[in-house]
Write a structure and sequence with these properties.
Length: about 80
């Protein structure tokens, strides 16, 4: 098979001692992008439930922010 102009140029640069751009290309480190899946509804709920240790997540039923409010009345005579 014939080689493309770009491949010929890369080979020429490599022979001249220049940097081959193929070396700088990233690999996927074992991750196959076709096999990735989106999280299920249960996984999303679980992640939302543990976000910030339930501290700021007030949208969940039965959750509170844990704050207590005291009010005192001052009576002056």
């Amino acid at each position: 098979m014939a080689q493309s102009k770009a491949k010929k140029q890369r080979m020429k640069w490599q022979q001249q001692g220049k940097l081959n751009p193929e070396i700088n290309r990233l690999d996927w480190n074992g991750i196959i992008p076709v096999e990735r899946k989106t999280p299920t509804v249960a996984e999303r709920r679980e992640k939302l439930q543990h976000k910030h240790k339930n501290k700021w997540n007030l949208t969940l039923p039965g959750s509170s922010d844990g704050s207590i409010c005291f009010s005192t009345a001052l009576i002056t005579a």
